[in-house]
Design goal:
Elements: E1 3-7, E2 11-12, E3 18-25, E4 33-39, E5 46-51, E6 58-60, E7 68-73, E8 78-83, E9 92-102, E10 105-110, E11 114-118
Parallel strand pairs: 2-11
Antiparallel strand pairs: 1-3, 3-8, 4-5, 4-9, 5-6, 7-8, 9-10, 9-11
Length: 120
């Protein structure tokens, strides 16, 4: 079955760094675009970063540009989010999403989320 398993969330101090991982299984990872979303209490889920299935073009929310980096390792079926210069407003549950097509239909898969808390 399809699985997306996030890991790496933790409590960190402002200005600190964290590296999130999302390990995928049950689908053709290399053909799927991958994204990271986040959701803070009382707020809508928002796109943080995305990476395409091909050459690996990336996109970022304005709020994280220059601080976060998304990457993927197709050999390990894993997508990463390197988070630097963390701010309290980065506190949220971070979710991994896979976006692709199978049998002519669009397929969207979500992970269970991992908590990131930025606090002193």
């Amino acid at each position: 079955q399809v699985q997306l398993m996030e890991s790496g969330g933790d409590l960190v101090q402002p200005g600190g760094s964290l590296r999130l991982s999302c390990a995928a299984s049950g689908f053709t990872f290399s053909s799927y675009a991958m994204s990271w979303y986040r959701q803070a209490p009382g707020k809508e889920r928002e796109l943080v970063a995305g990476i395409t299935s091909g050459v690996g073009n990336t996109t970022y929310a304005d709020s994280v540009k220059g601080r976060f980096t998304i990457s993927r390792d197709n050999g390990k079926n894993t997508v990463f989010l390197q988070m630097d210069s963390l701010k309290p407003e980065d506190t949220a549950v971070y979710y991994c999403r896979a976006d692709g097509r199978r049998a002519g239909l669009r397929r969207l898969h979500w992970g269970q989320g991992t908590q990131v808390t930025v606090s002193s």
